[in-house]
């Protein structure tokens, strides 16, 4: 009957459409329930994020861990695998030598990123993310643990950039390769600092041993003895129990510390390793901020931090005794944390010079806080090695003072007062230009610290290949391999003194 509803009037197309809608509804419901599913980045061209916590939140929301949990080649004939990898790398490198007249300098560095089990990577990042609001978690000297991790989070920033989709990456100095035989270098994405601070002592040591075994089982490691592998050990306490077994690898460090308090002789040296800056604990004072604050910088010299340190940092207490109470000098005891950050930022933006003495190691996070604050660093650390010094000239942004001069009564203040206003203004303008080199960000920016890492690595690449090939061909007991145990300490000699 016309106009009357009949079940038989439903067409096959109508039924198919209805079933499809029901299926889509079910899938959407299941998707909304799953906390492990990640959505694509809705804005791949977003502004750079320099906050570690904010960047990590975005990273964990948009990066899906691969189901593959182990990158190790599974074969009973390991020597065959290593030899096959070596032969493949030889063929590719030979072709590059003949095709590219500028190789290895004219092309971006090719990096293979290991896909380690999640317990070495994503699980540790989630552990930080889920606990960073715990303000009661402090080190023995009262410093917030999570803030220390942020200061040494170079491993996160480099890894996040390397594994980002190519459509989101801006750096041209490095490219990630999908096959090991194509790689110049191998990146080990293990978060040594997070595991040290957030895991129980025995649990941490066990994880270190597992990471060590996992890496040393890799055919690429066996081929080179680890000489072309990169490992971040940016906190001097991290990975300490097992790192002697990986001393051939390229370490990313905060400094060299040739005193032996943190690194053993032969473990670290400039030919092999790379110095990276701490992550600043204050907000950027850009060129406009520096210009506007010029007339408001009423203090001559500022320092805020822990006044009692170990090893070379003992000079802090001596400097305080010398400078305390002097006109135009502000010295405050303080630690990291939100209140400490605000106080340090305010003090640095009101001062012309910022004192940067050694910490427990020759380096100090205060140096990089001063740089991004437009406050001219006064560096009192005789054994300090600086990040990217093959590219950056620190004389344009900092003053270097020997410990012996700084401790002479009245010498330091007389020296600072002798710096002309024109020189001060020039250095402040240079600080505004240099700040970009010390700001880690996501996405990583050209000429940012992530970019400079790979530009510095390019300068090391020939030596890395030299020592790798030399180790492969030297016959046992025919001659000694250089272990670098006898290398002289890294320190700055007084002018005119030759060693």
Quick synopsis:
The chain has helices at 12-33, 52-62, 78-99, 122-131, 145-151, 154-162, 192-198, 201-216, 219-224, 287-293, 315-323, 338-349, 365-372, 403-406, 411-417, 421-434, 449-473, and strands at 109-113, 174-176, 185-188, 229-232, 250-253, 274-275, 299-305, 329-333, 351-357, 376-380, 399-400.
Features:
single chain; 499 residues; alpha/beta; six-stranded parallel beta sheet; five-stranded parallel beta sheet; 11 strands; 39% helix
Describe the structure.
The longest helix has 25 residues. The N and C termini lie far apart (109 Å). The strands form two sheets. Strands 2-1-3-4-5-6 form a six-stranded parallel sheet. A five-stranded parallel sheet has the order 8-7-9-10-11, with helices on both faces. The protein contains 17 helices and eleven strands. With 499 residues, it is an alpha/beta fold. The N terminus and C terminus are likely disordered.
Write the layout of secondary structure elements.
Layout: H1 12-33, H2 52-62, H3 78-99, E1 109-113, H4 122-131, H5 145-151, H6 154-162, E2 174-176, E3 185-188, H7 192-198, H8 201-216, H9 219-224, E4 229-232, E5 250-253, E6 274-275, H10 287-293, E7 299-305, H11 315-323, E8 329-333, H12 338-349, E9 351-357, H13 365-372, E10 376-380, E11 399-400, H14 403-406, H15 411-417, H16 421-434, H17 449-473
Parallel strand pairs: 1-2, 1-3, 3-4, 4-5, 5-6, 7-8, 7-9, 9-10, 10-11
Helix pairs in contact: 2-4, 7-8
């Amino acid at each position: 009957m016309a106009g009357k509803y009949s079940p038989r009037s439903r067409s096959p197309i109508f039924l198919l459409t209805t079933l499809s809608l029901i299926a889509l509804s079910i899938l959407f419901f299941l998707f909304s329930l799953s906390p492990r599913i990640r959505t694509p980045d809705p804005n791949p061209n977003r502004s750079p994020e320099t906050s570690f916590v904010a960047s990590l939140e975005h990273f964990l929301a948009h990066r899906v861990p691969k189901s593959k949990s182990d990158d190790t080649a599974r074969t009973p004939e390991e020597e065959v695998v290593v030899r096959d990898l070596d032969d493949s790398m030889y063929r590719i490198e030979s072709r590059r030598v003949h095709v590219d007249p500028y190789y290895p300098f004219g092309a971006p560095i090719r990096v293979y990123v290991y896909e380690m089990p999640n317990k070495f990577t994503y699980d540790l990042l989630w552990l930080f993310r889920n606990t960073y609001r715990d303000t009661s978690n402090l080190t023995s000297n009262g410093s917030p643990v999570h803030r220390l991790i942020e200061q040494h989070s170079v491993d996160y920033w480099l890894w996040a950039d390397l594994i980002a989709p190519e459509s989101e990456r801006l750096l041209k100095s490095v490219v990630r390769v999908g096959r090991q035989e194509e790689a110049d270098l191998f990146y080990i994405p293990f978060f040594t600092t997070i595991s040290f601070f957030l895991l129980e002592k025995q649990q941490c040591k066990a994880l270190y041993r597992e990471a060590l075994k996992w890496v040393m089982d890799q055919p690429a490691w066996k081929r080179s003895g680890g000489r072309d592998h990169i490992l971040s050990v940016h906190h001097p306490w991290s990975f300490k129990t097992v790192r002697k077994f990986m001393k051939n690898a390229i370490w990313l460090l905060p400094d060299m510390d040739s005193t032996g308090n943190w690194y053993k002789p032969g473990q670290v040296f400039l030919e092999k390793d790379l110095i990276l800056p701490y992550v600043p604990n204050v907000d950027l004072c850009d060129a406009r901020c520096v210009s506007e604050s010029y007339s408001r910088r009423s203090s001559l010299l500022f320092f805020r931090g822990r006044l009692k340190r170990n090893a070379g940092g003992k000079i802090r207490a001596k400097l305080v005794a010398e400078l305390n109470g002097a006109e135009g000098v502000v010295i405050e005891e303080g630690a990291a944390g939100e209140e400490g950050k605000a106080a340090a930022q305010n003090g640095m933006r009101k001062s012309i010079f910022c004192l940067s003495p050694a910490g427990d190691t020759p380096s100090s996070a205060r140096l990089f806080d001063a740089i991004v604050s437009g406050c001219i660093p006064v560096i009192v650390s005789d054994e300090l090695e600086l990040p990217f010094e093959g590219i950056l000239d620190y004389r344009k942004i900092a003053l270097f003072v020997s410990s012996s001069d700084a401790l002479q009564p009245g010498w330091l203040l007389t020296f600072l007062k002798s710096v002309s206003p024109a020189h001060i203004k020039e250095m402040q303008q240079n600080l505004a230009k240099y700040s970009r080199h010390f700001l880690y960000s996501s996405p990583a920016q050209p000429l940012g610290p992530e970019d400079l890492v790979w530009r510095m690595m390019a300068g090391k690449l020939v030596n890395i290949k030299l020592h790798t090939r030399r180790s492969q061909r030297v016959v046992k007991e025919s001659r000694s391999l250089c272990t670098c145990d006898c290398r002289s300490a890294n320190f700055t000699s007084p002018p005119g003194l030759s060693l």
